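Justification of computing resources. Each target in the renewal requires a structure prediction run like the one illustrated here; the chain below, 315 residues long, is used simply to show the kind of job we budget for.
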Amino acid sequence: MPAITVPDLTVLERVPAPALGDQPRHVWQVSDAPTGFEGEGFPVRRALAGFDLAHLDPFIMMDQMGEVEYAPGEPKGTPWHPHRGFETVTYMIDGVFDHQDSHGGGGSITNGDTQWMTAGAGILHIETPPEWLVTSGGLFHGIQLWVNLPRDAKLSDPRYQDIRSGEVRLLAGQDAGALVRVIAGSVGGHTGPGSTHTDMTLLHATLEPGARLDLPWERDFNAIAYVLSGQGHAGIDGPALRMGQAALFGGGDYVTLQADEHQDTRSPRLDVIVLGGRPIREPLAWAGPFVMNTKAEVMQAYEDFQRGSFGHIPG
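Resulting structure tokens:
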């Protein structure tokens, strides 16, 4: 799992330890991610499907794409499709994905890069493996997160952020046994490069066997940890977690993750996506590629899309 790594974690700034009186967040619920297929048929795990949407706010959904080793000719992507009313965040861990949209955004992402697309008032986009990868086959692994937009930003101008792996803020855990990649938001005053409409934090942590990580967390944010690979525990003396499981935390000042001493040979470390945000607390109407506040707004989005007001597919 390459993403971006550092050979010697002791050279990095450390995540600050919990302060005296800080309260740990305990785990409310653990959920297994069901499997499915997306786009033209690439496999995904619906990482947050087991949780009530009210507890996910401001997030809508997250898919773990892969991890899959494609044979030549097998890599798949998505056809052109519309979005309105939210942001898509595609974080590539292994492999390569190409993106294009109807407003001129796009590019290739690989091994720790992130595409952050604000659909806003409406956009068409496509995500595909490059031709050479289709020909050769290869490893494909990443996540896509949908982040809701507040009512006053749902019809904002579309925007595209290309976040390279070298821009991500890198931190070490308190015992230098964990690498923390801050993509957006901040951890203990250390801020990642992603610019967000909704106050939130998104990070990817890799814990060595036996390592513990305490992450300072905004009290008014929710907190979710999803295991990409490996096995460990969530919370102080909390439940066991393994690949494909997510933990929803309650309130408090910090989130704790612990890697088991013994990992299997295929997943020698515990890799976790941790995310949280300030709830928007607005009505939600979600249908397919449109996330709005009312059913009437969703119907309007379909009409606008059919009229071609989301832009045109580039020639």
